[in-house]
Design a protein that fits this description.
Peroxisomal Thiolase, Chain A, domain 1, 6 helices, 236 residues, alpha+beta
Length: 236
Amino acid sequence: MRDAGLVHGTPAFDVGASCLSFLAALQVAASLLNAGSYRRIAIVASDLASRGVDWSCPEASLIFGDGAAAVVVELPKAGAGADGEGIASYLLETYPDGLEYCEIRAGGTRRNPRSGMCESDFMFHMDGKRVFKLASSLIQGFLHRLLDARGLSIADIDTAVPHQASHLSMAHMRRRLGLPASSVIDIYAHHGNQVAASMPTALHEAVVTGRAAPGKRLLLLGSAAGLTLGGMVLCT
């Protein structure tokens, strides 16, 4: 806040949902705006994944990238904007079977200086195969629930903005969605998995390439540690 030049007393709080933090924060921001609590909200997502990965474990270290992105959201002024703009559908589901597939073990009450811990407990650990298997078994049903809630189908989606989890997950996502490759934002090769910054960075790519232009219907979709699935249909 200090570096952003905001006045003292400006409210700020964290939304911690791992790789889906931006998606959850966008829903929280929309709720606060619609309630009249605030007029304009900045959502800032930043991660220095390189400081938390175990470099001796290729699976958990080679897919990540550092990054930061910010989005400012506000309600349109009276008479501005078209009907139907904003969040059309939102869904977040957590499946604790995947609790230990992606984790930093230290911290909290389980592993700390009093209960006992080791240096590696502070590093990020991942069982990628089990994460992928669980997420793959759930994503199709999740997607149907997300779209059916508003009477939509994948044919109604113009652009998909997925969390850039890994090369394998991006390829799988394209197959499952059945959208043209040009309609799926894929920046993984250049940015890696930026954790919470991944989705807003991909959203920026959609904007600058014209794939998030006014009148477009976007699908934001991803998974996070937990295991949690999250999705949003956003009308621009």
